[in-house]
Design brief:
about 375 residues; alpha+beta; Rossmann fold; OB fold (Dihydrolipoamide Acetyltransferase, E2P); 2 domains; 6-stranded mixed beta sheet; 9 helices; 20 strands; binds adenosine-5'-triphosphate; ATP binding
């Protein structure tokens, strides 16, 4: 088990990049750390690898503090975004190099390299230089170097960001398979929330070096702790709409700016009032694009008319940009449901899936 306890990183004791970072990582877990560019993800990973000094806090591996250990003594292997392959060496030597430096018996090196090459389907490329490989093959060589190290913990620093979309999708599946086959523990850093949702057993969302939420992808997606997480996870991004709240007739009513819509909130969204006895005058309504659908006559209630500003056809889905006052909302609907009259189409908000966030702190009012 790997534990990060009160980890802090600052440069020159002034600029704090990571603050009070606490995380438990269980054996065999695939942990994905996701956050916007510059939030400290790579720094965190480099501290676990031993490539960056930890300013304060503890890094415990099975209870033992390894925060001052040399990288080679940490049982970790890191796969970098730019693969960090030696350009003048062929694949075999790239895989073997780390072991050669450690003066491992050549027969054992050969055995390990050939095994790693077989696992990663690289056997026919062993003589090639990195420049003669595709992006995906280079990525596999980088993973091969992690395998031959016999590491228990694999660290991935945005390993797919240099690949095109199709290959990224393929390599994502390969990395997950690699993790399962190696029976190791993986920590994977990305700013791509789709990669995060699809790979993680445990998802960690960070902003400016601080953890915003930890949970399974489903937990985080269904119950975002605040509007930052709600907007960051899920694509297209969650719509955030400022609303005024009114408390009357035993219910809570929300009104959009410019009176664009007015509706009673479902009971499961008003626990902040009924159970926590809070009565804020304003809030931010978070609603996912897939929860704004075209209104049909069977559905009663929470509907409003919008102009469709423009449409993006994505094969079987369509992204609609709706005009709301001076703002825009996004709706994602099946392409076959495209409205006929784009000037005035009626949409239905699935409010029982919406979220209400505090106007100032952004906290989910119902959690
Ligand atoms: N040696 C350094 N001295 C001062 N600041 C640094 C140093 N190295 C990194 N930083 C700063 O630390 C912050 C976090 O950097 P880091 O590379 O960890 O972010 P990241 O979340 O991995 O970003 P990205 O997704 O863009 O790779 C950034 O603001 C960066 O400018």
């Amino acid at each position: 088990m790997l534990q990060l306890k009160n980890i802090r990183k600052s440069y020159d004791n002034k600029l704090t990049i990571i603050n009070n970072f606490n995380l438990d990582i269980n054996p065999g877990e695939f942990v994905v750390i996701v956050g916007p560019s510059g939030c400290g993800k790579s720094t965190l990973l480099r501290m676990v690898a031993g490539l960056e000094e930890i300013t304060s806090g503890q890094l415990l591996l099975n209870g033992k503090d390894i925060s001052t250990f040399e990288p080679s003594k940490r049982e970790v292997a890191m796969v970098f975004q730019d693969y960090a392959l030696y350009p003048h060496m062929n694949v075999y030597d790239n895989l073997a190099f780390g072991l050669m430096i450690k003066k491992v018996d050549p027969a054992i090196i050969k055995e390990k390299v050939l095994k790693a090459a077989e696992i990663l389907d690289l056997t026919t490329y062993l003589e090639r230089k990195p420049s003669d490989l595709s992006g995906g093959q280079r990525q596999r060589v980088a993973m091969g170097r992690a395998i031959v190290k016999d590491a228990k913990i694999f660290l991935f620093d945005e390993p797919l960001s240099n690949l095109d979309a199709k290959l990224r999708h393929k390599m994502r599946a390969e990395i997950k398979k690699f993790h399962i086959d190696q029976k190791g523990t993986s920590i994977y850093v990305t700013h791509d929330q789709l990669e995060a949702l699809t790979l993680a057993d445990k998802l960690v969302i960070i902003r400016a070096g601080v953890i915003e939420q930890v949970g399974t992808p489903q937990e985080v997606f269904n119950n975002p702790k605040n509007s930052f997480v709600g907007e960051f996870i899920g694509t297209p991004a969650m719509n955030l709409i400022e609303v005024d709240l009114e408390y009357k007739d035993g219910g809570v009513y929300a009104t959009g700016r410019n009176q664009a819509f007015h509706f009673k909130l479902p009971d499961n969204k008003t626990k902040f009032h009924t159970e926590k006895k809070k009565s804020p005058k304003t809030a931010v309504l978070g609603i996912r694009p897939t929860d704004i659908i075209l209104h049909t006559t069977e559905e009663a209630g929470w509907n409003a008319k919008f102009e469709v500003l423009f449409t993006e056809l994505l094969g079987h889905e369509a992204n609609l940009i709706l005009k709301y006052g001076n703002e825009e909302l996004t709706s994602l609907i099946p392409a076959m449901h495209m409205p006929k009259d784009l000037k005035s189409a009626e949409f239905y908000f699935k409010l029982h899936f919406a979220h209400l966030f505090d106007s100032i702190s952004g906290e989910n009012l119902n959690l």
